[in-house]
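Action item from last meeting closed. Structure (182 res):
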């Protein structure tokens, strides 16, 4: 027997997400200058990866770019709301363009981590990306399923590396532990 009770659908803003930057670069000076700049611009760094496997370009990017020899990830104390990713990508492009004068291989990829996934911002459209705002697309690279991150088939090759997966798994652990703390 059906009841006449119903639940009104409501909208709720999710908790802030863990903000990170992936940096592909050629010379160490660029990286350390970036770290100093982003700590002033965004917030204090809470996690910093070791040198990771080289960022791998997708087919479209390979036509016009070359990746740096080194890749590192910075994660920041500041939590972001997911809708901020488009503006952060624009700010990162400005930083990237200024750094490319001294390091032509310099590249910044901003993203966020939540309990359920890892999302990066991209500037090119593709079938698996969702348009966000002002020329920025969101791409899910990991989903959390059955107690671990699973990389999506469409994710850039960098995310299939065990070192990247290890970093993001540890970042998620910290996020889960601290997500209700100010």
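Sequence:
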């Amino acid at each position: 027997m059906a009841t006449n009770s119903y639940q009104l659908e409501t909208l709720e803003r999710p908790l802030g997400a863990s903000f990170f930057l992936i940096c592909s670069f050629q010379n160490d000076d660029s990286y350390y200058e970036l770290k100093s700049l982003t700590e002033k611009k965004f917030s204090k760094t809470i996690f910093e990866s070791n040198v990771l496997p080289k960022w791998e370009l997708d087919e479209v990017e390979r036509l016009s770019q070359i990746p740096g020899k080194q890749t590192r990830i910075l994660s920041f104390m500041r939590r972001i709301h997911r809708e901020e990713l488009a503006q952060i990508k624009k700010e990162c492009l400005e930083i990237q363009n200024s750094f490319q004068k001294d390091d032509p291989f310099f590249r910044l990829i901003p993203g966020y981590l939540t309990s359920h996934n890892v999302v990066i911002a991209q500037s090119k459209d593709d079938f698996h990306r969702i348009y966000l705002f002002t020329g920025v697309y969101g791409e899910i690279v990991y989903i959390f399923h059955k107690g671990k991150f699973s990389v999506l088939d469409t994710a850039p090759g960098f995310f299939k590396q065990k070192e990247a997966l290890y970093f993001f798994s540890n970042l998620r652990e910290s996020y889960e532990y601290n997500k209700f703390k100010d």
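Note appended to the action item: The chain has a mean pLDDT of 90.
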